[in-house]
């Protein structure tokens, strides 16, 4: 027979078990407010839909309210040329851009964006960073910069000219006012190109009003995506490099506040963004050359375009002379491209 003491003892155990089960069933309660970031990309709204928004949307979904990243497009909060300083000061928390166009105060900034003939294909970029040592050099460079953390580099599209008038020879480039990146513009100036700097959102109107004769900022996928194919007529199949190098960066103080599991999540989402661009650009460049109806294709003959490639070799040596770190990057680029050439098809076609 069960006495009162036994009954109360068992009831207490049952109550404790019920309490434990109830606690396990309770939804997750956050002990503090979610981390909120503002990230600005170099890309305008139409382009951002592909080059960054899918990754940020995925991060916000999986972070489940523990962290929220607000995405802003080109010049929306600060001008692109001021992105680095704004991030360093904490005005914005993170950036997706190349170093060249946002004037990052590091010697490797010339290699961000379009460094002439550094790459042939988009896969060259992750291989150079992850297997040939550029990742360690970039980390070294940004460790010398106060309050900015470089996070990850990836590849975008090749750099081609799309113009109002056709380009069939190097002579046709002379006097052309072209929207492009600082380092690419400096290199192209020796062929008579006049580099022009404008806010991203003003480029289309500048072509329409005649302020610009063309653009050397992207491949044909972006020309169609952002509307530049609507205001230019020709696309030059020769390119000055096979892939744009861009990166993600964060304000170091804000990055250090992020828990490790969310840092890992952000890394996965950056990798997802890099992967998305690989196939989106690769497929788009081919499809729009074949099926696109807005731009007529032109080509400068290989023997003449060889002069541009020869000039790039001299340009590389000039950049290498600027610092020991720049020399190390150029050395890697030379060794890598030589190895790809020796590997032969499909790595390089001669």
Overview of this protein structure:
It is a single chain. With 350 residues, the chain is an alpha/beta fold. The chain is built from 13 helices and 11 strands. Strands 7-6-8-5-9-11 form a 6-stranded mixed β-sheet. The radius of gyration is 25 Å and the shape is globular. It starts with a helix and ends in a 7-residue tail after the last helix. The model is unreliable at 1-31 (pLDDT under 50).
Main sheet, how many strands, which sense, barrel? 6 strands, mixed
In terms of quaternary structure, what is this? Answer: single chain
Helical coverage, percent range: 40-55%
Side by side, the strands of the main sheet go: 7-6-8-5-9-11
Mean pLDDT: 92
- Strand tally is 11
**Beta-strand proportion:** 15-25%
**Rough shape?**
globular
Structural class: alpha/beta
- Measured distance between first and last alpha carbons: 96 Å
Number of helical elements: 13
Which spans of ≥5 residues are poorly predicted at pLDDT below 50? Answer: 1-31
Order of H and E elements:
HEHHEHEHHEEEHEHEHEEHHEHH
Whole-angstrom Rg: 25 Å
Describe the secondary structure blueprint for this structure.
Blueprint: H1 4-25, E1 35-41, H2 45-51, H3 53-63, E2 67-72, H4 83-89, E3 94-97, H5 124-130, H6 134-142, E4 148-155, E5 159-163, E6 177-180, H7 182-188, E7 194-196, H8 203-209, E8 214-218, H9 220-226, E9 234-241, E10 245-251, H10 252-256, H11 260-291, E11 296-298, H12 302-320, H13 324-343
Parallel strand pairs: 1-2, 1-3, 6-7, 6-8, 9-11
Antiparallel strand pairs: 3-10, 4-10, 5-8, 5-9
Helix pairs in contact: 3-11, 9-11, 12-13
